[in-house]
């Protein structure tokens, strides 16, 4: 099925729920009623939060979403958003069609600055310290990220290498799953996922934890399926535009957390970090004119 047809099929989510509500069993009915009553809130929630509020399992929430014609909960959220918000909000929540360049600049930069401030306040120093210790003890660090988190994951791997930490990155879902399954207790896994609900990173992190790795997540504050498979959590707090399929402010917050983690790691083993930075700088200098 082509993407345009799939999108058309997911219009009018609340009408679709109404059409099948009478035939739903009790659990699915509770989920349907919750989505109907709190539709505006659901677009901001994770599948875990909806399941908890509806007194159901995450699998039951996904099952209802599939009955409505979606691949999963995230697609229902996007479809609900399309029903509830103005089209311009898919670009950025705070924009309106009449905004000039000065308003666009002010709103985009303001959102980024707010995300940095909120994330600074949300970052748990105890968890940060545990992440530093886990990575220092590990013989290898595996970094996972897909979609908009992929370039953040690649940057994290690059930065870890620059300070002398053995790191690899996986941004392909198949390689990520294989890598996760081949982990062991000497491995630390760093997973980057704003929602904490992305199937690819969720599966790979679960496999890594089951294999004995210490799992670290950089994810937005709130309940999500990823937390069940994570030993250490570094929270961002980005008021991400909930109605879009691509991240904006969350990337800025994630980069700030990664920068903080790298700096803390470098300071924890200062001499090695400086020596490795010097060595890699010399290597890279030949690639500059």
- Low-confidence region ranges: 1-8, 87-91
Q: In CATH, what is the class of the largest domain?
A: Alpha Beta
- So how many helices? 14
Find the CATH superfamily of the largest domain: Glucose-6-phosphate isomerase like protein, domain 1
Structural class: alpha/beta
How many E strands? 5
Distance between the termini: 50 Å
Global geometry:
globular
Count of distinct structural domains: 2
Instruction: Give the % helix.
Output: 55-70%
Percent strand equals 5-15%
Q: SSE string, helix = H, strand = E?
A: HHHHHHHHHEHEHEHEEHH
Strand arrangement within the widest β-sheet reads: 2-1-3-4-5
Give Rg in angstroms. 21 Å
Q: Look up the CATH topology of the largest domain.
A: Rossmann fold
Largest sheet: 5 strands, parallel
CATH-derived architecture of the largest domain: 3-Layer(aba) Sandwich
Multimerization state:
single chain
Mean pLDDT: 86
What does this entry show, briefly?
This protein is of the alpha/beta class and 289 residues long. The protein has helices at residues 3-9, 13-20, 26-37, 39-42, 47-53, 58-67, 73-84, 101-122, 125-137, 150-162, 173-181, 199-210, 249-268, 270-285, and strands spanning 140-144, 167-170, 187-192, 214-220, 232-236.
Q: How would you explain this protein's 3D organization?
A:
With 289 residues, this protein is of the alpha/beta class. The protein folds into two domains: 3-84, Orthogonal Bundle (Arc Repressor Mutant, subunit A); 108-285, Glucose-6-phosphate isomerase like protein, domain 1 (Rossmann fold), CATH 3.40.50.10490. It has helices at residues 3-9, 13-20, 26-37, 39-42, 47-53, 58-67, 73-84, 101-122, 125-137, 150-162, 173-181, 199-210, 249-268, 270-285, and strands at 140-144, 167-170, 187-192, 214-220, 232-236. It has a five-stranded parallel beta sheet with strand order 2-1-3-4-5. α10 links the parallel β1 and β2 (167-170). The protein is globular and about 70 Å long.
